[in-house]
Amino acid sequence: MQWLRLLVGLSVLAVGPVAVRVEASEAQRCVVCHRYADAEEADGADRVVRRYHVSETDRDATASPHSRLSCTDCHDEEEVGVVPHSAVSFVDCSRTCHLTEADGSMTITSHQPAKQMLRASVHSQGVLDASNALLGRPLRAGQSRCLLCHDEGTIRRAGDEPGRSNRDAARLCATCHHDRAVRSEYELPDAIASYLASFHGKAMLLGNRRTAGCLDCHARHGRDVHLILSDGNRLSSTHPGNLAGTCRSPQCHPSAGERISSAAVHLDLSTSLGVEFLVAVLFVVLIVTTFGPSIVLTALEMFHIVVGRESVDHRRHRRLAERLAADPVGRVRLKRFTVHQRVQHWLLAVCFVVLVITGFPMKFADRAWSAWVIEHLGGLDRARLIHHGAGLVLILGFLYHVMYLRWIIRRRQRATGQEWLDIALDQPMVMNRADWRHLRELLSYLLFLRRTRPKGGRFSVEEKFEYFGVFWGVTLLGLTGLVMWGNAVVTQHLPGRVLTIASLIHSFEAFLALLHVGVVHMVTVIFSPSVFPISRAMFTGDTPVEELAEGHAGMLETVAREIEADTADEDCDKREACEST
Description:
two-stranded antiparallel sheet
């Protein structure tokens, strides 16, 4: 501040030892001092720093209407008309102003109507005064309460472009609606946190400018933002009787049903005890009871690898696998996946990866990496388009797989005459009682309670569980995804609350799927020493020898017996042919 005083002193010395009056036409000379960014002083009494900087934006007529004002239009000429000037009184924002337009014409405007509307809104003078006190009095006595929400660069006239983006508006509203003291005083929920966790809030965080912000819902369309009313006021845009119209405005969801308004925008699961809370609890239990045991088994497997423990019959099974793999017939019979099945697997894998890349940034929209991914995908709209496309392909692939299973069952049904349900339950990827016994014995082996590892068949228990998880996951994700995608049609027949429940199920199930695939499945098919750097089973159909010996010993013995039986039958046929001759 010393340099500023020196500058002013030199100016005074240049014209005489008395204060110099600045003519009204020369009022903009104020920026000679106020243009410097570090024009400030510390107020020891209030322990705050007073800034006096007037930025380029403030002086840009295209950015701020205040730039078209002379300093003395707002400040008392008797106080600022001299250099250096004395202490300046606070500005009354409700006074009448004269704006000079680009064509030289004069426009008279006043903020008095805004002040009157505030008196009738939830943000009355009393509420603003009390909030200012609860916030630690950022505004001093006599200062306009308009400054709790406004600064000069964001004030706009009617008809001008909006002064704040949805992100800026949310940040502004958070001043009070996220403050614990203010919320406690007025018994308010944390509306900012719940908004940012909602569909609209996440879209806003990812740069979408068409999504709904605070003012889109709480300032009735066509009305001034200063007239925000409480939910209980019949004229409020968020009153239960008006909420459907607010959601179905031309700017938002014009084709949706009236019941879309029951979709939660400010859902707080920590305080909700409804269906949404129950869904969250059920999925937490599901994650613990499914992923929990899976990760425990995986950790035990990795521990056995680290300590180098092997089943007592592992080397024998390895030799058997090598012998069968060297035999042309044995190698064919050891293929666990057909070409058709491998194509279906890779279709599933590609769709899953695309859905994860495009979907999880939307779920974790407040993370910096999410914005980076969405930006490189071409924006949120394109990311959604890719996500919807991959989801649709996944659903179609799933339906094809169901038809593929139906074809297998029908073919076997015609050959054997069995019931279709018995055939379905006898499929190699379906868990049975023997698998539960196998799982119990595997756990005993991993806990060092037995010396031999249970002999796995063509498909391990873990693979069967993952296969069931695909059926479960694709069904839930597909149905809930279609519900959210077709929200306009859905809400014409069902309450909007269905969208909230569908969103929760979709998010939790996607997270559960990522945990299983990203941790358990990846360890099994990539990081396990028996297959590293990756299992060839889904490329060539050939399972690595080490993996066969460790996880599919039962299949090895079955194939060996079948080949020996076929060889014995062939020798018997040759002997019978010789005897007959």
